User: Fold this.
Amino acid sequence: MANASFSTNESKTFIHIADDNRVHMWDTDRAKERASYVEKHHLGHSYTCSAWKGGKKDNLGYFAVGASDGTVVVWDLTRGVVSKVLGTAHESPVPSSVVFASDAKSLLVASSSHHSVLRYDLASGAQTAAYKMGKRGISTIALNPKADVLAVGG
Assistant:
């Protein structure tokens, strides 16, 4: 998956996921790469979806990517490290969509092969809830942070 997104708190920072699953952060004002991120299993799976929760001021926030092995890799962009790996490789459903909860303390994960949206606590990495969504798989989710409303598409 080649994917890209702008920072939510300022528009001059841009993230791009390359075909080899390397994550590149760019400064659009200077047209220069700010940072590059590589996790140790980046060639063992492909990324299926992503979400960015920008921090305040110099804190770049967190970037989550769903992987084809069923895990979700969460990057601490300021420190440049993987802070959590959510789910269990080859046991958890493959994520089709991820979104940070409005409290920024949890991550919501959907799968087109699963009938629930899973909530993970970012501090512990534990799954804290599963919200049943009917009989179809879920291809995308979106969260309205001001109303705490989750939209689900399948």
Summary: The chain has no helices and 14 strands. Residues 24 and 36 are 4 Å apart (CA to CA).
